């Protein structure tokens, strides 16, 4: 249903932590013009964990309004309480999102049966297309391929964002699920190989700062053109690493600030990028031919 380069969009904030709507509108235009294939609003990179429900919905509504149907909008609506995930998913559907991205419940560490029932309950409650999101490094729980296969027949579960970085999971997931859902990389350094192995796209942090290059790389990789994918990715390969020297979205928000696209705001408990990482990230941006204004 959704293919290619899908940006895990940051949520622009002022220095006091308040939302900056003007910068958010500018980011949407930036991605539409660069060929980004879908925009993921209020996911991990969008600091969903520190937004209240009204802010969460406001960001989704604004991204939908700014996109004006030119690019699909996927709203992050995961939560560690199933009832809250249902509420956020319903609100995102009412706001006009094209689909929702639901992370595995975090902190409470459900077993596989609990994960299955959680995602099934949300899908049954809200008919919008839904993408599962597995990121054990953040949540403390791993959505196993066998559990994904149990969920694949649910008609409105359409994809899986797999952020373990384990490319070897792709053949196993394809074996178990076939074409019943699409697989998306959730880790930029391994995304090219993930797509060449059969993935249908990447939900990317790097796409925030290099959307055209990520679009070109994803387009080639999904088509199975290794040489073209490697050539498109070459200028941004160092960015994949540099944008994760501290917890996401700390580095990418600093990079976008250096590019003049957002104010410097980020919400506690996250803090601005440490001084020692700034020059190496600046060099990676320059090597990718990304213009800086600061």
Automatic annotation (TrEMBL):
Pyruvate binds at residues 45, 203. It comes from the Bacteria. The record marks 44, 107 as: Part of a proton relay during catalysis. Its main location: cytoplasm. Coiled coil: none annotated. SMART domains: DHDPS. Its EC number is 4.3.3.7. The record marks 49, 80, 84, 106 as: L-lysine inhibitor binding. One of its GO terms (biological process) is lysine biosynthetic process via diaminopimelate. It catalyses: L-aspartate 4-semialdehyde + pyruvate = (2S,4S)-4-hydroxy-2,3,4,5-tetrahydrodipicolinate + H2O + H(+). It is an enzyme of class 4 (lyase). One of its GO terms (cellular component) is cytosol. The active site is at 133 (proton donor/acceptor), 161 (schiff-base intermediate with substrate). The keyword Cytoplasm applies. CDD domains: DHDPS (cd00950). Catalyzes the condensation of (S)-aspartate-beta-semialdehyde [(S)-ASA] and pyruvate to 4-hydroxy-tetrahydrodipicolinate (HTPA). Belongs to the DapA family. This is 4-hydroxy-tetrahydrodipicolinate synthase. It comes from Ectothiorhodospira mobilis. The gene is dapA.
């Amino acid at each position: 249903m959704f293919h290619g380069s899908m940006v895990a969009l940051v949520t622009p904030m002022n220095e006091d932590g308040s939302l900056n709507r003007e910068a958010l509108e500018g980011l949407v235009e930036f991605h539409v013009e660069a060929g980004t294939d879908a925009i993921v609003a209020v996911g991990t990179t969008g600091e969903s964990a520190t937004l209240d429900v009204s802010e969460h919905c406001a960001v989704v509504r604004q991204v939908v309004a700014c996109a004006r149907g030119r690019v699909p909008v996927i709203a992050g609506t995961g939560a560690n309480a199933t009832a809250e995930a249902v509420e956020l998913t319903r609100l995102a559907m009412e706001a006009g999102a094209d689909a929702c991205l639901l992370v595995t419940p975090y902190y409470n560490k459900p077993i596989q049966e609990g994960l299955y029932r959680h995602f099934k309950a949300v899908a049954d409650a809200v008919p919008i297309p839904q993408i599962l999101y597995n990121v054990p490094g953040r949540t403390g729980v791993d959505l196993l391929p066998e559990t994904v296969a149990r969920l694949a027949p649910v008609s409105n579960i359409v994809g899986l964002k797999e952020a373990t970085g384990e490319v070897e999971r792709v053949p196993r997931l394809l074996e178990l699920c076939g074409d019943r859902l699409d697989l998306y990389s959730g880790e930029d350094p391994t995304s090219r190989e993930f797509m060449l192995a059969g993935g249908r796209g990447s939900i990317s942090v790097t796409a925030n700062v290099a959307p055209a290059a990520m679009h070109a790389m994803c387009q080639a990789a999904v088509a199975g053109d290794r040489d073209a994918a490697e050539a498109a990715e070459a200028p941004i390969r160092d960015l994949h690493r540099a944008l994760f020297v501290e917890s996401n979205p700390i580095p990418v928000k600093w990079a976008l600030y250096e590019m003049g696209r957002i104010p410097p705001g980020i919400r506690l408990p996250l803090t601005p990028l440490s001084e020692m990482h700034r020059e190496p990230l600046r060099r990676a941006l320059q090597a990718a031919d990304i213009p800086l204004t600061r």
